[in-house]
Amino acid sequence: MSDQPNERLAPVAYLPWVAPSSEQTDDAATPVRGSSRHPAGRAFGEGRPARLVALGRERDGDDESAETGIERDERIDRLIVSRLRRSSLSIAEVRAALVEHGLDDNEVEEWIERYERLGYLDDRRLAEHLVHSHGVRRGRGSGALLHELGRRGIDAELARDALDALDPEVELEHATEVAARRARQLAGLDRVTAERRLSAFLLRRGYGSELVRRAVTSALASDPID
Fold this sequence. Notes:
Layout: H1 22-29, H2 50-62, H3 69-86, H4 91-100, H5 105-117, H6 123-137, H7 142-151, H8 156-164, H9 168-183, H10 191-204, H11 209-222
């Protein structure tokens, strides 16, 4: 009988948008006896720096209460995946989190590459999602959207591609809807004051000046103010 303990990890819980391949599913569902496997089915140490693997072995022998390299990887992976379950993250945001947990540059890039390969990270998809959620549902203009994408660390080219997919007429429609709702709060003001305040409101939401002019004109025409 083998002296090695029978270690069985919990089944893999893939993120909702990740469709694991049959190879990943088979690996994850059949953990190797006596080994420690990454939740995605990849054995820790596979492709990892030899220094990290050796560190885990040395610390495991010296102090049972100390965190081994493998245990550290498992802990960090649980934390990152937990955050990804709660909300979409950009590559830059995950990179910052990994650095915060003490991983060096080479390790960080290895983890980023693995999360991208598994579908956990996709900045192009994230940019498109943010343009839709902030533009359509929150009534933000392209200027505000570009700022938000930059704040999230999305590459400038990817951000521009996502914004280019936004139909100008659709953006005008959204701006007009936002302006019409706001115009109802300006009842009692003279037209010049209402136009000025409504224009300033839309500019703060990131809409361009020409689009603002058209949206304000349309909104006040449908909801006239004396």
